[in-house]
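Backbones bend. We report:
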Amino acid sequence: MFEINKTQFGLFLSAQRKEKGYTQKDLAAKLYISDKAVSKWERGISLPDISLLAPLAEMLNLSVTELLEGKKMDKDSEMNAAQVENLVKKALSFSEKPETKDPAKKRKHLLIFAACTAAVILEWLACFLFQNIYQALYYKECIFTMQILGLFFSAYFLLKAKEQLPHYYDENKISAYNDGFFELNLPGIYFNNSNWPYILRIGRIWSVLSAAVFPLVSLILNWLIPGLWKIAGFFVLLEFTLGMFVPMYIAGRKYAGSDTADKKYDI
């Protein structure tokens, strides 16, 4: 049975961290965990979550095998280490439970995104057909920016975002969420599986409205109130703050640690 020596792991991690010039706080920030968790690892009290081993090894310029063994591999055993590395990575991937997505929900999200994209295209056509409404180039840029960002975020929230967070989010106070190219940081809010469904729902609703509805409303308002385009940038900023970040902050505070989070929401 493959077991990790916690003490050896902690001493090795501490030495490699110091060699790279990182403090415990630096390492924690890059992994989006608390520095207390790093301290526990280095003291041999606990071990990192299995999903953190690969990014931790990469940060310290180590292989996962070296990290698990608590020592650097000899150059003479490089080929053997590479083989072990592949086996370890496979073991890590098999040990993680893949997220099961509801096929019906997935189809629904695809249809919503497709409808959102179609609405944006129709609004672009309206822009060219009614040039007198989009008189100012600045106004066009604000509307197009709003739509492009809305499509980008809706593609992420509807098609790629995870329905559940890794369990270490529930065990640590983490105020930032990172998923590859996407990062969400809400100071004072700790992400967990109690408030994440509500934050995710707000992101989905906001992104669809930003891409398909808000620009249309802005178009109508500019037609009714000539000259409104002069403060279009202010409305775009207002939409981002009041439309997404404020509701997410409220939901994050309200449902943090709740055991009755309703994960069966419509969107």
Q: What stands out?
A: Residues 259-266 have pLDDT under 50 and may be disordered.
